[in-house]
Amino acid sequence: MGWKVAAALVVANMIGTGVFTSLGFQLQDVTNTWSILLLWTLGGVMAITGAFCYAEIGSAINKSGGEYIFLSKLFNPLIGYLSGWISLTVGFAAPVALAAMALGVYLGNVLDINNALLAVSVILILSVIHSFNLNVSSRFQSFATWFKVLLVISLILIGLYYTEVDSALDFSNTWVTEILTPSFAIAFVYVSYSYTGWNAAAYVIEEIDKPRITLPKALVRGTILVTLLYVLLQFVFLKHGALGELQGQLDIGHVYATNLFGIQGAKTINILISFFLISGISAMIWVGPRVSQAMSKDYKVWHFLRKTNKNNLPVAAVWFQAVLSIIYVLTGTFESVLLYCGFILQLSAALTVTGVFVLRKKEPASAYFKTPFYPLLPIVFILFSIWVLIYLLIDKPLESIIGLIILVVGVLTYFINKKVSKYS
Fold it and tell me: Whole-prediction pTM value?
Protein backbone atom coordinates (compact mmCIF):
# COMPACT_ATOMS: atom_id res chain seq x y z
CA MET A 1 0.00 0.00 0.00
CA GLY A 2 1.03 3.61 -0.61
CA TRP A 3 1.07 6.37 2.00
CA LYS A 4 -2.53 7.47 1.34
CA VAL A 5 -3.98 4.02 2.01
CA ALA A 6 -1.71 3.59 5.04
CA ALA A 7 -2.74 7.04 6.33
CA ALA A 8 -6.41 6.07 5.91
CA LEU A 9 -5.68 3.02 8.07
CA VAL A 10 -4.22 5.31 10.74
CA VAL A 11 -7.26 7.63 10.60
CA ALA A 12 -9.69 4.68 10.75
CA ASN A 13 -7.99 3.29 13.85
CA MET A 14 -7.61 6.63 15.62
CA ILE A 15 -11.13 8.04 15.30
CA GLY A 16 -12.98 6.00 17.88
CA THR A 17 -14.74 5.95 21.24
CA GLY A 18 -12.72 8.54 23.17
CA VAL A 19 -13.60 11.57 21.05
CA PHE A 20 -17.34 11.10 21.76
CA THR A 21 -17.07 10.13 25.42
CA SER A 22 -14.12 11.57 27.33
CA LEU A 23 -14.87 15.31 27.43
CA GLY A 24 -17.44 14.91 30.22
CA PHE A 25 -14.85 13.26 32.49
CA GLN A 26 -12.27 15.96 31.73
CA LEU A 27 -14.75 18.73 32.60
CA GLN A 28 -15.25 17.38 36.11
CA ASP A 29 -12.02 19.08 37.18
CA VAL A 30 -10.73 21.02 34.13
CA THR A 31 -13.30 23.55 32.88
CA ASN A 32 -11.41 26.33 31.10
CA THR A 33 -11.76 26.13 27.30
CA TRP A 34 -8.09 27.00 26.74
CA SER A 35 -7.15 24.10 29.06
CA ILE A 36 -9.39 21.64 27.18
CA LEU A 37 -8.15 22.72 23.75
CA LEU A 38 -4.56 22.58 25.03
CA LEU A 39 -5.16 19.01 26.27
CA TRP A 40 -6.37 17.87 22.86
CA THR A 41 -3.59 19.74 21.05
CA LEU A 42 -0.96 18.21 23.35
CA GLY A 43 -2.49 14.79 22.69
CA GLY A 44 -1.96 15.37 18.98
CA VAL A 45 1.61 16.61 19.51
CA MET A 46 2.41 13.56 21.59
CA ALA A 47 0.88 11.23 18.99
CA ILE A 48 2.83 12.93 16.18
CA THR A 49 6.05 12.69 18.23
CA GLY A 50 5.38 8.99 18.82
CA ALA A 51 4.59 8.52 15.12
CA PHE A 52 8.02 9.84 14.12
CA CYS A 53 9.73 7.48 16.58
CA TYR A 54 7.68 4.45 15.48
CA ALA A 55 8.45 5.34 11.84
CA GLU A 56 12.18 5.17 12.59
CA ILE A 57 11.94 1.84 14.40
CA GLY A 58 9.53 0.38 11.85
CA SER A 59 11.58 1.38 8.80
CA ALA A 60 14.70 -0.14 10.40
CA ILE A 61 13.18 -3.43 11.55
CA ASN A 62 10.77 -3.63 8.59
CA LYS A 63 8.56 -6.36 10.09
CA SER A 64 4.81 -6.30 10.74
CA GLY A 65 3.60 -6.76 14.30
CA GLY A 66 4.10 -3.42 16.02
CA GLU A 67 5.41 -3.35 19.60
CA TYR A 68 5.52 -7.15 19.85
CA ILE A 69 8.21 -7.31 17.14
CA PHE A 70 9.94 -4.01 18.00
CA LEU A 71 10.47 -4.71 21.70
CA SER A 72 11.49 -8.33 21.15
CA LYS A 73 14.26 -7.24 18.78
CA LEU A 74 15.37 -4.07 20.58
CA PHE A 75 15.27 -5.32 24.18
CA ASN A 76 14.60 -9.00 24.90
CA PRO A 77 11.89 -11.66 24.35
CA LEU A 78 10.27 -11.07 27.77
CA ILE A 79 9.65 -7.37 27.02
CA GLY A 80 8.33 -8.29 23.58
CA TYR A 81 6.12 -10.97 25.11
CA LEU A 82 4.65 -8.46 27.58
CA SER A 83 3.70 -6.12 24.74
CA GLY A 84 2.01 -9.09 23.05
CA TRP A 85 0.34 -9.93 26.36
CA ILE A 86 -0.97 -6.35 26.54
CA SER A 87 -2.45 -6.71 23.04
CA LEU A 88 -3.88 -10.09 23.96
CA THR A 89 -5.59 -9.07 27.21
CA VAL A 90 -6.08 -5.29 27.10
CA GLY A 91 -5.01 -3.66 23.84
CA PHE A 92 -8.07 -4.78 21.88
CA ALA A 93 -10.46 -6.41 24.37
CA ALA A 94 -10.68 -3.32 26.63
CA PRO A 95 -11.28 -0.81 23.77
CA VAL A 96 -13.95 -3.18 22.40
CA ALA A 97 -15.60 -3.12 25.84
CA LEU A 98 -15.32 0.67 26.09
CA ALA A 99 -16.84 1.21 22.65
CA ALA A 100 -19.62 -1.28 23.45
CA MET A 101 -20.35 0.44 26.78
CA ALA A 102 -20.51 3.83 25.03
CA LEU A 103 -22.78 2.34 22.37
CA GLY A 104 -25.04 0.99 25.11
CA VAL A 105 -25.43 4.52 26.50
CA TYR A 106 -25.95 6.23 23.11
CA LEU A 107 -28.37 3.60 21.79
CA GLY A 108 -29.99 3.44 25.21
CA ASN A 109 -31.10 7.03 24.56
CA VAL A 110 -33.15 5.71 21.63
CA LEU A 111 -34.16 2.18 22.71
CA ASP A 112 -35.60 1.27 26.08
CA ILE A 113 -33.05 -1.52 26.65
CA ASN A 114 -30.50 -2.01 29.45
CA ASN A 115 -27.15 -0.44 28.48
CA ALA A 116 -25.02 -3.44 29.56
CA LEU A 117 -27.32 -5.83 27.67
CA LEU A 118 -26.91 -3.73 24.52
CA ALA A 119 -23.12 -3.69 24.95
CA VAL A 120 -22.82 -7.46 25.43
CA SER A 121 -25.25 -8.15 22.55
CA VAL A 122 -23.23 -6.05 20.10
CA ILE A 123 -19.98 -7.82 21.07
CA LEU A 124 -21.60 -11.23 20.57
CA ILE A 125 -23.27 -10.36 17.25
CA LEU A 126 -20.12 -8.86 15.72
CA SER A 127 -18.00 -11.76 16.98
CA VAL A 128 -20.39 -14.17 15.22
CA ILE A 129 -20.11 -12.15 11.98
CA HIS A 130 -16.30 -12.14 12.16
CA SER A 131 -16.33 -15.89 12.75
CA PHE A 132 -18.07 -16.67 9.47
CA ASN A 133 -17.69 -14.08 6.74
CA LEU A 134 -14.65 -11.95 5.97
CA ASN A 135 -16.13 -10.41 2.78
CA VAL A 136 -18.91 -8.71 4.70
CA SER A 137 -16.41 -7.50 7.31
CA SER A 138 -14.03 -5.94 4.78
CA ARG A 139 -16.78 -4.16 2.83
CA PHE A 140 -18.39 -2.86 6.00
CA GLN A 141 -15.05 -1.63 7.35
CA SER A 142 -14.17 0.24 4.17
CA PHE A 143 -17.51 2.04 4.14
CA ALA A 144 -17.41 2.72 7.89
CA THR A 145 -14.02 4.47 7.69
CA TRP A 146 -15.29 7.14 5.33
CA PHE A 147 -18.55 7.38 7.27
CA LYS A 148 -16.64 8.14 10.49
CA VAL A 149 -14.66 10.97 8.93
CA LEU A 150 -17.72 12.49 7.22
CA LEU A 151 -19.77 12.30 10.45
CA VAL A 152 -17.09 14.11 12.46
CA ILE A 153 -16.64 16.80 9.77
CA SER A 154 -20.43 17.28 9.53
CA LEU A 155 -20.80 17.69 13.31
CA ILE A 156 -17.95 20.23 13.31
CA LEU A 157 -19.38 22.31 10.43
CA ILE A 158 -22.90 22.31 11.90
CA GLY A 159 -21.55 23.25 15.33
CA LEU A 160 -19.47 26.10 13.93
CA TYR A 161 -22.35 27.43 11.83
CA TYR A 162 -25.07 27.60 14.50
CA THR A 163 -25.01 30.18 17.30
CA GLU A 164 -24.77 28.76 20.81
CA VAL A 165 -27.60 29.10 23.35
CA ASP A 166 -26.16 27.31 26.40
CA SER A 167 -22.38 27.14 26.30
CA ALA A 168 -19.52 25.78 28.40
CA LEU A 169 -17.01 28.05 26.65
CA ASP A 170 -14.75 29.81 29.13
CA PHE A 171 -11.83 31.84 27.78
CA SER A 172 -10.78 33.37 31.12
CA ASN A 173 -7.28 33.19 32.60
CA THR A 174 -8.05 30.26 34.93
CA TRP A 175 -6.21 27.95 32.52
CA VAL A 176 -2.91 29.27 33.93
CA THR A 177 -3.53 27.47 37.25
CA GLU A 178 -5.52 24.54 35.81
CA ILE A 179 -2.70 23.19 33.67
CA LEU A 180 -0.46 22.85 36.75
CA THR A 181 -2.90 20.61 38.67
CA PRO A 182 -2.89 16.78 38.93
CA SER A 183 -6.39 16.87 37.39
CA PHE A 184 -4.90 18.22 34.14
CA ALA A 185 -2.55 15.22 33.98
CA ILE A 186 -5.43 12.77 34.64
CA ALA A 187 -7.53 14.51 31.98
CA PHE A 188 -4.63 13.97 29.59
CA VAL A 189 -5.01 10.19 30.08
CA TYR A 190 -8.49 10.39 28.53
CA VAL A 191 -7.07 12.40 25.65
CA SER A 192 -4.11 10.08 25.03
CA TYR A 193 -6.49 7.12 24.98
CA SER A 194 -8.58 8.94 22.35
CA TYR A 195 -5.47 9.23 20.17
CA THR A 196 -4.56 5.53 20.33
CA GLY A 197 -4.31 4.09 16.85
CA TRP A 198 -1.71 6.57 15.58
CA ASN A 199 0.70 3.64 15.35
CA ALA A 200 -1.70 1.46 13.29
CA ALA A 201 0.43 1.40 10.13
CA ALA A 202 3.33 -0.03 12.16
CA TYR A 203 1.38 -3.29 12.48
CA VAL A 204 1.38 -3.88 8.69
CA ILE A 205 4.84 -2.63 7.66
CA GLU A 206 5.48 -5.62 5.37
CA GLU A 207 2.43 -4.63 3.30
CA ILE A 208 3.63 -1.03 2.82
CA ASP A 209 5.52 0.02 -0.30
CA LYS A 210 8.90 1.69 0.42
CA PRO A 211 8.34 1.88 4.21
CA ARG A 212 11.32 4.19 4.78
CA ILE A 213 9.42 6.94 2.91
CA THR A 214 5.81 5.79 3.14
CA LEU A 215 5.56 4.86 6.83
CA PRO A 216 6.48 8.30 8.28
CA LYS A 217 4.19 10.01 5.76
CA ALA A 218 1.25 7.79 6.70
CA LEU A 219 1.77 7.97 10.46
CA VAL A 220 2.42 11.71 10.69
CA ARG A 221 -0.08 13.02 8.10
CA GLY A 222 -2.86 10.75 9.34
CA THR A 223 -2.22 11.88 12.92
CA ILE A 224 -2.17 15.60 11.98
CA LEU A 225 -5.57 15.25 10.25
CA VAL A 226 -7.12 13.53 13.26
CA THR A 227 -5.63 16.12 15.66
CA LEU A 228 -7.29 18.94 13.73
CA LEU A 229 -10.67 17.13 13.72
CA TYR A 230 -10.43 16.29 17.43
CA VAL A 231 -9.65 19.84 18.58
CA LEU A 232 -12.47 21.34 16.47
CA LEU A 233 -14.98 18.70 17.63
CA GLN A 234 -14.28 19.37 21.31
CA PHE A 235 -14.73 23.09 20.63
CA VAL A 236 -18.22 22.62 19.13
CA PHE A 237 -19.18 20.25 21.97
CA LEU A 238 -18.25 23.00 24.47
CA LYS A 239 -20.00 25.61 22.34
CA HIS A 240 -23.34 23.79 22.36
CA GLY A 241 -23.62 22.44 25.89
CA ALA A 242 -23.86 24.03 29.32
CA LEU A 243 -21.11 23.00 31.74
CA GLY A 244 -23.57 21.28 34.09
CA GLU A 245 -25.00 19.25 31.18
CA LEU A 246 -21.58 18.05 30.03
CA GLN A 247 -19.79 17.30 33.32
CA GLY A 248 -19.55 13.57 34.01
CA GLN A 249 -21.56 12.67 30.90
CA LEU A 250 -20.48 9.69 28.80
CA ASP A 251 -22.77 10.55 25.86
CA ILE A 252 -21.41 14.03 25.07
CA GLY A 253 -22.66 13.75 21.49
CA HIS A 254 -26.22 13.28 22.81
CA VAL A 255 -26.06 16.54 24.79
CA TYR A 256 -24.69 18.37 21.72
CA ALA A 257 -27.35 16.90 19.42
CA THR A 258 -30.24 17.58 21.82
CA ASN A 259 -29.29 21.25 22.15
CA LEU A 260 -28.98 21.69 18.38
CA PHE A 261 -31.70 19.43 16.95
CA GLY A 262 -34.13 18.78 19.79
CA ILE A 263 -35.10 15.37 21.20
CA GLN A 264 -36.18 13.81 17.89
CA GLY A 265 -33.16 15.09 15.99
CA ALA A 266 -30.90 13.87 18.78
CA LYS A 267 -32.24 10.34 18.30
CA THR A 268 -31.01 10.36 14.71
CA ILE A 269 -27.57 11.61 15.79
CA ASN A 270 -27.45 8.95 18.52
CA ILE A 271 -28.13 6.24 15.93
CA LEU A 272 -25.40 7.64 13.65
CA ILE A 273 -22.90 7.75 16.53
CA SER A 274 -23.92 4.20 17.48
CA PHE A 275 -23.11 3.06 13.93
CA PHE A 276 -19.81 4.93 14.27
CA LEU A 277 -19.06 2.96 17.45
CA ILE A 278 -20.12 -0.34 15.85
CA SER A 279 -17.55 0.25 13.08
CA GLY A 280 -14.83 0.72 15.73
CA ILE A 281 -15.86 -2.43 17.58
CA SER A 282 -15.90 -4.34 14.31
CA ALA A 283 -12.40 -3.14 13.40
CA MET A 284 -10.96 -4.25 16.74
CA ILE A 285 -12.75 -7.62 16.63
CA TRP A 286 -11.26 -8.04 13.16
CA VAL A 287 -7.66 -7.00 13.91
CA GLY A 288 -7.21 -8.06 17.55
CA PRO A 289 -7.55 -11.83 17.05
CA ARG A 290 -4.93 -11.71 14.25
CA VAL A 291 -2.41 -10.31 16.73
CA SER A 292 -3.39 -12.97 19.29
CA GLN A 293 -3.11 -15.70 16.65
CA ALA A 294 0.38 -14.48 15.66
CA MET A 295 1.47 -14.63 19.30
CA SER A 296 0.02 -18.14 19.64
CA LYS A 297 2.42 -19.41 16.98
CA ASP A 298 5.44 -18.34 19.06
CA TYR A 299 4.27 -19.40 22.53
CA LYS A 300 2.91 -22.86 23.32
CA VAL A 301 0.81 -21.72 26.26
CA TRP A 302 -1.37 -19.83 23.75
CA HIS A 303 -1.48 -22.58 21.10
CA PHE A 304 -5.23 -23.00 21.59
CA LEU A 305 -5.70 -19.57 19.95
CA ARG A 306 -4.35 -20.96 16.66
CA LYS A 307 -7.63 -22.76 15.93
CA THR A 308 -9.30 -21.64 12.69
CA ASN A 309 -12.51 -22.63 10.91
CA LYS A 310 -12.99 -23.88 7.35
CA ASN A 311 -12.74 -20.27 6.08
CA ASN A 312 -9.36 -19.93 7.83
CA LEU A 313 -10.75 -17.37 10.29
CA PRO A 314 -9.18 -17.33 13.82
CA VAL A 315 -12.38 -18.30 15.67
CA ALA A 316 -10.64 -19.30 18.91
CA ALA A 317 -8.90 -15.92 19.14
CA VAL A 318 -12.12 -14.08 18.19
CA TRP A 319 -14.08 -15.70 21.02
CA PHE A 320 -11.25 -15.46 23.54
CA GLN A 321 -11.22 -11.71 22.94
CA ALA A 322 -15.03 -11.54 23.05
CA VAL A 323 -15.12 -13.23 26.47
CA LEU A 324 -12.51 -10.80 27.85
CA SER A 325 -14.45 -7.82 26.46
CA ILE A 326 -17.68 -9.02 28.06
CA ILE A 327 -15.88 -9.48 31.40
CA TYR A 328 -14.66 -5.85 31.18
CA VAL A 329 -18.22 -4.66 30.41
CA LEU A 330 -19.77 -6.56 33.33
CA THR A 331 -17.12 -5.90 35.98
CA GLY A 332 -15.98 -2.29 35.47
CA THR A 333 -17.25 1.21 34.90
CA PHE A 334 -16.35 2.99 31.66
CA GLU A 335 -14.02 5.36 33.53
CA SER A 336 -12.12 2.66 35.44
CA VAL A 337 -11.61 0.46 32.36
CA LEU A 338 -10.38 3.45 30.36
CA LEU A 339 -7.91 4.49 33.07
CA TYR A 340 -6.18 1.13 33.60
CA CYS A 341 -6.26 0.47 29.85
CA GLY A 342 -4.73 3.93 29.30
CA PHE A 343 -2.07 3.27 31.96
CA ILE A 344 -0.87 0.06 30.30
CA LEU A 345 -0.98 1.37 26.73
CA GLN A 346 0.92 4.53 27.72
CA LEU A 347 3.61 2.44 29.40
CA SER A 348 3.94 0.18 26.34
CA ALA A 349 4.22 3.13 23.91
CA ALA A 350 6.81 4.88 26.12
CA LEU A 351 8.95 1.76 26.25
CA THR A 352 8.76 1.37 22.47
CA VAL A 353 9.81 5.00 21.91
CA THR A 354 12.76 4.39 24.27
CA GLY A 355 13.78 1.78 21.71
CA VAL A 356 14.87 4.61 19.38
CA PHE A 357 17.95 5.17 21.59
CA VAL A 358 18.72 1.43 21.57
CA LEU A 359 18.31 1.33 17.78
CA ARG A 360 20.73 4.21 17.24
CA LYS A 361 23.39 2.36 19.25
CA LYS A 362 22.83 -0.94 17.45
CA GLU A 363 22.61 0.36 13.89
CA PRO A 364 24.06 3.88 13.75
CA ALA A 365 25.00 3.75 10.06
CA SER A 366 21.84 2.19 8.60
CA ALA A 367 19.86 4.03 5.95
CA TYR A 368 16.48 3.90 7.68
CA PHE A 369 14.20 6.89 8.37
CA LYS A 370 15.56 9.15 11.10
CA THR A 371 13.40 10.92 13.69
CA PRO A 372 13.81 14.70 13.23
CA PHE A 373 15.18 16.79 16.10
CA TYR A 374 16.70 13.70 17.72
CA PRO A 375 16.96 13.21 20.68
CA LEU A 376 14.42 15.93 21.55
CA LEU A 377 11.27 14.23 20.20
CA PRO A 378 11.70 10.84 21.92
CA ILE A 379 12.70 12.60 25.16
CA VAL A 380 9.54 14.76 25.00
CA PHE A 381 7.36 11.68 24.46
CA ILE A 382 8.99 9.78 27.33
CA LEU A 383 8.73 12.76 29.72
CA PHE A 384 5.05 13.23 28.82
CA SER A 385 4.47 9.53 29.51
CA ILE A 386 6.29 9.62 32.88
CA TRP A 387 4.29 12.71 33.87
CA VAL A 388 0.98 10.96 33.08
CA LEU A 389 1.96 7.65 34.70
CA ILE A 390 3.15 9.28 37.95
CA TYR A 391 -0.04 11.31 38.35
CA LEU A 392 -2.13 8.25 37.55
CA LEU A 393 -0.37 6.30 40.29
CA ILE A 394 -0.93 9.15 42.76
CA ASP A 395 -4.48 10.17 41.86
CA LYS A 396 -5.93 6.88 40.57
CA PRO A 397 -3.99 4.20 42.53
CA LEU A 398 -6.61 1.44 42.16
CA GLU A 399 -6.76 1.64 38.36
CA SER A 400 -2.95 1.93 38.16
CA ILE A 401 -2.50 -1.13 40.42
CA ILE A 402 -4.94 -3.13 38.25
CA GLY A 403 -2.79 -2.20 35.25
CA LEU A 404 0.39 -3.31 37.05
CA ILE A 405 -1.28 -6.58 38.18
CA ILE A 406 -2.14 -7.35 34.55
CA LEU A 407 1.56 -6.92 33.69
CA VAL A 408 2.66 -9.15 36.61
CA VAL A 409 0.26 -11.87 35.46
CA GLY A 410 1.81 -11.49 31.99
CA VAL A 411 5.29 -12.15 33.43
CA LEU A 412 3.95 -15.28 35.18
CA THR A 413 2.44 -16.61 31.93
CA TYR A 414 5.80 -16.05 30.21
CA PHE A 415 7.57 -18.36 32.66
CA ILE A 416 4.65 -20.82 32.59
CA ASN A 417 5.15 -20.95 28.83
CA LYS A 418 8.86 -21.72 29.35
CA LYS A 419 7.93 -24.69 31.57
CA VAL A 420 5.29 -25.90 29.10
CA SER A 421 7.81 -25.68 26.25
CA LYS A 422 10.47 -27.50 28.29
CA TYR A 423 8.30 -30.51 29.10
CA SER A 424 6.41 -30.82 25.81
Answer: 0.83
